[in-house]
Model the fold of this input.
Amino acid sequence: MSTFNVQKLRHEFPNLNITVHGKPLVYLDNAATTLKPRCVVDAINAYYVTGVSNVHRGVHYLSEQATAAFEYSRQVVRQFLHARRVEEIIFTKGATESLNLIANSYGRHFLKKGDEIIISHMEHHSNIVPWQMLCEQTGAVLKVIPINERGEIIFEEYTKLLSEKTKLVSLVWVSNSLGTVNPVKAVIEAAHKQGAVVVIDAAQAVTHTAINVQELDCDFLVFSGHKVFGPTGVGVLYGKEKWLEAMPPYQGGGDMIKSVTFAKTTYNVLPYKFEAGTPPIAEVIGLRSALEFFQNIGWDAMKQYKQELLDYGTKMLLSINGVRVIGTAREKTSIISFVVDGVHPHDLGTLVDQEGVAIRTGHHCTQPVMEFFKIPATARASLAFYNTKEELDILASSIKRAKDIFNA
Ligand code: ALA
Done:
């Protein structure tokens, strides 16, 4: 194994120290949500204990402090994504809301009957349903890039779908149910040749790779705070300034206006035009701590360590009779979906939970992926940098125990 100091990092995550059913917690559900380091909890706590105030609304000390902390988080997010301008960073309540914002604002404004939207067969429901709703509202048509048996998009099929009718392509960077890493740069370049804008769902990618939206040249990119060691209830929408300027507001209310009369309302400048109402202040402040903590770990050592965990875990699972891994892409991150002959994933999830092991079972909000592989569900172990080989050994022994119980 690499020299990555996992034990030191584990100390920062108090949640790792709990027991479940009398056994030490083995947390392998990081694609659903990540655990939170102490600094994130402390930052949220500090706001609620001595720093409570609304933002952008007061001249008093606390309001100015809260506003400064809130806007500093935006700077940290800008730097995390390498966005050109801070005005291109919109806070939302999560990746799902960010996608809905794009569909409702950009989509309803710019798309019309007969225009085409391309997504892939491996999208999360949050990157399918908003586009279906948009198609119902506008008469646009949804096209789907097929995938192969490894769980990779078939690039040649994608290029065949592209035409002058394509107005928008929305693609997941890292699949939450298969672990596939998509060739987003090539997808963006091909779409731009046809004049289409590209949305990247980076919900799982944020912990996989450093993101540079200028280098990628994506038009929009979304992620959720809670999948990158931050709080729930906060997410980010990055958008190129030229699009955000041209788009109408998504929601109306306080803070997104410049002036209101019954005759006419004028809207605020970016990014506030898209942030109606009191935002998730504590969560935005917590997100900054999460991103700073995460970036301080260092990508190279962390990536190498997670790759070793992925290889070890995959080998370990495949050594168990009757285990099949779903999602064998050549470019893959540390998400391992699998099925076990003779044991339904839900039963498996319940039995391994008795050993303190938390995995997710189900369709993972990607029903078309399950349909493609002709299975109702998978069990999924999704790994973070604080997981260990020993934890994967416990997963393997708990799967063997479940097989014994089912005589499988
Ligand atoms: N999208 C999250 C997952 O994959 C909730 O579990």
Observations:
- The chain has two domains: 6-30+298-405, 41-295.
